[in-house]
Amino acid sequence: MRKIVLYIAMSLDGYIADKSGGVDWLNGDGSEPENCGSYSEFSSSIDTVVLGYNTYHQIAAELSPGNWPYEGMQSYVLTHRKLETQNEIHFVDTAMAELLTKLKQQDGKDVWLCGGADIIDQALKANLVDELTISVLPILLGDGIRLFQTNEIPKYLTLISHKSYNGIVDLVYRVK
Fold first, then answer.
1. Which of 69, 52, 51 is nearest to 60 (CA)?
2. Which of 35, 36, 137, 172 is a Cys-bridge partner for 165, taking CB atoms 3.0 to 4.6 Å apart?
C-alpha cells in the first residue's frame, strides 16, 4: 500500500509561510550553496501530489508560472471551484480523507501531501499521514501560517532519519 507523506519546509519557529503568505525566505544560510538538499531524492519516491487550491494557485501564479513543477506526476487540487482537468492536474471537489484513502489503495509510488496547512491539519486529524519530512530552515519569522494549526490529538512519531545541509535540517518521522 502507498504511503501518504508530508514533505514540507518550515521556519525554526514553525511557519510554512510569512504573514502575507509569502515563501521567498525558503533558502538555506548560504554555507553550502551547491547542496540541493533532499527534494530530488524525495521526488523520485512519489508519483502523486495532493494540494489545496491556495497552494496550487501560489505555485501556478507566483512561484512557477507557465511551468508546472510536478510534471509527470498526477496532481490533485482540492477545491470547490469548478475547474477543468489540465493534463495531469485534477481539480476535485471531494473530501480530503476520501481522496487520500482512495489514492492510498491504488498501485504506485507514495503520495505527497504538499499543502497547505488546512489540508495537512485535516489529514493528520484523520490519521492518514504515514510519514513526515520536515525541513527546518534557519529563520525565525515571528508570525505567519503555522504548519501545525491545532494540537487536539497527540501524534506519536518515530524518528527515521535526519540530515543537515546549507543550514537546513531535514527530519523524517514515521507516525506510530
1. 69
2. 35
Q: Which three cell numbers stand for residue 82?
A: 469548478
Tell me how far apart the terminal alpha carbons of the chain are, to the nearest angstrom.
16
pLDDT digits 0-9 by tens, 133-156? 999 999 999 999 999 987 677 889
The identity of residue 170, as a single letter, is D
Provide the 3-class DSSP secondary structure of residue 24: coil
For residues 2 and 39, the answer to whether their CB atoms sit within 8 Å is no
Rounded Cα distance between 46 and 151, Å, is: 28
The 3-state DSSP composition of the chain as helix, strand, coil percent (nearest 5) reads: 20, 35, 45
Chain Cα centroid distance, residue 145: 14
Q: What is the grid cell recorded at 108?
A: 504506485
